[in-house]
Every structure is written in structure tokens, then in C-alpha cells.
Amino acid sequence: MRSSDVDTLCAHRNETEVAATQDWPMPYVAGMAGWLSGQDRLDDITSGGRTHLAIDVGGEHVGELALLLDDKGQQASIDCTLSSRYWSRGYAREAALAVVADLVDRLGVVRITATTDPGNIAALRLLEAIGLVHEHEARLGVVRRGERTDATCYAVTADEWRAWRDRPQGSPGEVSLVPIDSDSAWAWRAVEGHWSQRRFVASVSDSYTDALFPDVWRGGRLVPVLLGVMADDERVGFLMYADRSPSMLSPYLWRMLVDRRHQRRGIGRQALRLLARRLLAEGNTHMTTTFAEGRGGPREFYLGLGGRVTGEIVDDETEAVIDLTTLAAEPVEP
């Protein structure tokens, strides 16, 4: 960024939605951006200080990426802000991903960190989309607007980021469902979703607890069945459903989790088609499920499988019914 960016910098920093989780003074005026003059002499990211990079779209300055690189050039922290007029278009992800790649591949940074407001779901999802992993919650860990408040902290090492970048991203050659038993239960705990998705699906460990102490449903305890999802001989997902019983007239899809490294590959859809064929063979015609509502939630996923919302709310979750014949008839092959 340069001194010439002061007007656009002030414009997007003064947007209410942008400033809500930031700590700069409001209103933000040009006199507060004197630090921009120090940027005029920079031609690269500098160690031992902060560097601000402009995010340009079609030649228009619409946001910024702030980098803090330590004295040895080994650890960097990143922070991204973008004008609300350009949200939800992928610009922040594209810019942040390019910067992380440059830090790792060209500058040799070995660890990258980021901190954000726990309630800023868009920021959590952005950090996850560029390969960072939730590390911890810092209670009263930052000062914002003069008050102590909580922070969510993400990080990734260079090796971890390269592994994430090089992970399989296309449709898998083969997906299968396998039983989980005492010999494999521990290994399946490594399957985990993104931190931002914890509002919608429990961890494998929490699912084990629920299976050990199942809920009572209409006078009878749920009968859990636990299955692992394999893709090309790799553990990529976890599935748990409640089997049909005297109190459960149709199977209930209890949990569906795809590992964060294997999402957006069509694995969840393929796994549920395989489950539908299995349940049909056992004489079932449909299964029910429930899901939490919210941004980034699974509503569209289940509706895309032919799910029909019943209008019932069960434990604060929306109930849906899925026709097994329709789901099972779709091809599983990629």
C-alpha cells in the first residue's frame, strides 16, 4: 500500500460492518494513516515489522492484508479486511491464499498465525479456506475498543500448509463404508471437520459418547450404528445413524462428518447414497435427519439429496425426511 491509498483506506475502514471486529478508531480519518508514508519506500515484505498489502479488484483498492513478520523471517501473522461491497465473491480468499503461498514458498516462513473474533464466522471460514487450522481460544486475549475480549487463534506450519495444498481435491476413485470397531475406533478420531462447523456437527469423540449413552426417543433408546467413510483407502469421514427399532420407525441419520481436508469432493453425497442402498436392502423406505440452521450449515446439502423439511423442530434442529429410493438410484461413481 502507498500514501495514495489513504482515501480508499479510510473509506473501507469506516464501513460499520468492516470495523465491527477491528480495533482502529472510529471514524477513521486521513490523519490516522500517517503510517502509510512508511510504506512508500517498501518494495517487498519486510522482517521485523508490519507490511500492509492492498487488495485490488479491477484496479480499485478494496481492502488490505496486514502482515507482521518476525525479526528472523520465520513466523508471520496475517489479518485481512475487505470492503463489504466485495464480500462473498472469493476476493479475500484469493488474495490471502496467494500471500500465504508466497510466505511459505518464496520467503521460507515456517509458521503462520491469525487471530480473529470468535463470532466472525466469515473470518473463521476464510482462514480455514486458506489452510490454517484452529489452535486455541484465547479468553480475554485481545483488547478491542479499549476492552478485553476473547479471540480465536489459528495457525499452520509450512509443512502442514504444503500437505494441505497438495491434498486430493477431485472426486475420489472409490468410496466405501466400513464398520468401526474397538480395534479401529481410536484411528477414526483423527477425522475432524473445520472449527467453524462445530455448530453443526459434533466431533467423532463426542459421537462416541452419544453412542455409549444414547438418547431416549419416544420411550425407547436409540440404537446407534457407527460407520467409517473410506475414499481411495484413506479415512475421510464418519457416519452414525440410529437403526430402526420399536420406538424408531425409520432410521435416523444422527451424524455425518467429512474430514476438513476432504470436503468439497462429493464424498458426503456418495457416502449417503451407499447408506441409502444399505438401508433399502434392510427393508427401509426413508430416513430422517435433523440439522442446525445457520450460515455455512448443511440445509442445502440435505435438500440437494432430496430431503423434505417436515416442519418439525427437534432439540432446536430442523427435521427432514429423505426418500431412500430416490437417493440410492443416483450413481455413486464420480
UniProtKB/TrEMBL annotation:
Which residues are the signal sequence here?
Answer: none
Q: Which residues form a coiled coil?
A: none
Q: Entry's SUPFAM superfamilies?
A: Acyl-CoA N-acyltransferases (Nat) (SSF55729)
Q: Which CDD domains match?
A: NAT_SF
The residue ranges of the N-acetyltransferase domain are: 1-159, 175-328
Q: List, in alphabetical order, the Gene Ontology terms for molecular function in this entry.
A: protein N-terminal-serine acetyltransferase activity; protein-N-terminal-alanine acetyltransferase activity
Record's GO cellular component terms: cytoplasm
The yes or no answer to whether the keyword Transferase is present is yes
**The organism's place on the tree of life at top rank:** Bacteria
Q: Which InterPro entries match?
A: Acyl_CoA_acyltransferase, GNAT_dom, Ribosomal_N-acetyltransferase
Which keywords annotate this record? Transferase
UniProt-listed PANTHER family: RIBOSOMAL-PROTEIN-SERINE ACETYLTRANSFERASE (PTHR43441)
**Name used for this protein in its record:** RimJ/RimL family protein N-acetyltransferase
